[in-house]
Here is the input.
Amino acid sequence: MSRTAANLLAATLEAHDVDLIYCVPGESFLAVTDALIDFPSINLIVCRHEGGAGFMALADARTRGKVGVCMVSRGPGATNASIAIHSAYHDAIPCVFLIGQVERYEKNRMALQELNYAKTFSDTAKMVIEVENAELLSEAAARAFHVAASGTPGPVVVTLPEDMLDEAVDAPVVPPVSRARMAAPAQDIARLADMLASAEKPLVVAGGLVQGDRGLAALTKFAETYNLPVAPSHRRSHVFDSSHPNYGGYLGNRAPRQQMDLMKQADVLLVVGERLGPSVSQGFTFPAAPTPSQTLVHVWPDPVELGRVWQPTMGLASDIDIFLDSMLEHGSKGAPAGRTEWIGRLNKVHRELTAWEPASSNDGVVFGAVMAAINERMAPDAVVTSDAGNFSTWIHRYLYFKQSNMFVGYATGGMGGGVPSAVAAAICSPGRQVICFVGDGGFLMTGNELATAVQYEAPVKIFVANNASYGTIRMHQEGRYPGRVTSTALNNPDFAKFGEAFGAKGLKIENDGDVESVVAEALAHDGSVVVDVRTSLNYLSAWRKLDEYPAYSG
Ligand SMILES: Cc1ncc(C[n+]2csc(CCOP(=O)(O)OP(=O)(O)O)c2C)c(N)n1
Here is the structure.
């Protein structure tokens, strides 16, 4: 059957179960947007900036456990989307970026908006597939989905020359490649079970690849069966119930000293579904890189990563579900007598550190009060998204997650992910409560995607921590260049009015007395809401106040 290459691509996407594509249209791939009209099972979500569209694809992938898809225009569209490609690469999120390209005859002639994608994304995409031959387009798309989801998940770029998309092709639709799943050898599973049976102070660090209802339930059962404490890793707050007695503490960036002093006593560190990295490892110190001082067992579905920086005592290249199932099947061989006490000590520190004690300040609302009010009303299956910035420390410290929640945030710490991720979560999981936290800095980077939320009737509750500052950077300035504050003060618009201009409800929290009633009103509202929370600059972080720095003068 002869059809256009664009139609073949649309049919291939359909065969790969793609139902949502986040895009900003471009003239270079008009043929694809046109072809998609005939594929009603695929919805194009039209966004306002390619950075937003990219973050939406990532959040969709995280929320639904499938490959996210983003389609953007050549050159400028692609570079706008690059923040999301970079984040997906660092965060191991499977996604396919379909990017327009100039016509083939003008390539390498500095054509309008031409960009060499292989060079540009050589350090941020798992693979760049430049499709020159229309007959191979379906095969290329199938490869992109396969590579994105296999081994270490990540972003794959597929480039689409404009003239190629209109060509007539006879090639058939290439179906999804069947997933090859990795499993650790039975001897390694048995060896690990032995290690855990004799470990006095083990600690499980659970990361982003522990996912899906089944995987998360298996983690809990594993912790209970083997009597192990579990620490969710940086920005993976929901992977273990914070109220579970085996909760060992949140291993976020710059974890508190009381917690780290204890965690550093661990004799066996079992890292499951996370690559480690600077934030989880507290700047390459826990475990120490490259040679950990304790036994390190690292489980990740790609042998290349096991030993890349940290040398594990044992690396298990395995699909995470298979690993947890194998451990449960093998069964626990018991644990030393002091194990429960060890778990109790970790859990006690966790509970002490995360118990909210109301605080107030003369320069604005302490953001922890907003967390406390949300805890009372957060749906058990709420999706929570966060942008980057010190305001997020309040979430990780005082918002109490369950495995039935979903937290979406990016370990890379690029600003701008919060709002678009919330919009995507609301689009791809209708009916779920979606709460977004963002700083005043980050909100004006991608807050325009509120228009997308309103356009697609995808309600999001956005809490803007408005301290009139790029606060995180201000804190670094206070620490490293005392008394020399520069380039961090922000003169903001009225965010409640800003929200209203988009068709959302606009609310304000200006002092402590507003918190309870405004949070209740925001969460009870049917549609999207922007809450402008006038937060204290002094209480910028849940762990440290600015007035603890000697030169800070308000
Ligand atoms: C895209 C991007 N640009 C710049 C930075 C550097 N940066 C990190 S945090 C931060 C300030 C964030 O300010 P805000 O959103 O107001 O949150 P706050 O730190 O005040 O809580 C900046 C500029 C970054 N991480 N990402």
Remarks:
- Residues 76-91 form the longest helix (16 residues).
- The pocket of thiamine diphosphate is lined by residues 388-391, 413-416, 439-442, 465, 467, 469-473 (CB under 6 Å).
